[in-house]
Amino acid sequence: MAKNKKYISAKAAIDSKKLYSIEEAVALAKKTSTTKFDASIDIAIKLNLDTTKAEQQLRGTIALPYYFGKQIKILALSEAATAAQAKEAGADYFGGKDKIDEIKNGWLDFDVMITTPKFMPELSKLGKVLGPKGLMPNPKLGTVTPDVLKTIKEFKKGKMNYRTDTYGNIHMTVGKVSAAAEKIIDNIRTLLEFIIAKRPSTVKGDYVQKIYLSSTMGPAIKIDINKN
Fold it and tell me: What is the pLDDT of residue 1?
């Protein structure tokens, strides 16, 4: 009941009919957080996309100016680098066919796999295991690369995957309630500029339809697309 009262009170602070600027939305998201822990601030961008068409399925990687996500565990597969080099770059696990064999036996204690093209024929056989969990390396995501060490460093610094869901929405964490508002605003602007630049040429009409900002378990705040 107390939790519901907090949410109702937080929601009452937001005018559901108003479109807020990014600065106003960030201030409200921080103010209306209802959790005792340091909640994330998340953005939802509704795009005018037909995701049944391959060319309108946005997917890739982005490095925002400030990273507020969790620390990820990286598995690196390489025939050229050494275990010491991979560890220095930031990899949590390193190997080759030995690690693929461990995956075949059920080991999946990692968040991102970065590999050279050499190992993809073997990994492709594990599509039913890795695919549903989002662990399959993909050239479009930069996780199949000849420069494994450079890519490890990029992901450790906060490079993130993004993709549209079935309905054309993109969801990403852009901050924490405790973070400086300027950092969150910078992340939002960078993300929006990036997504707008990725507009498929086949899209007709308005591309960005709605943008919402909210803290974890907090009410949604609608951002004015035309003000930003």
Answer: 40
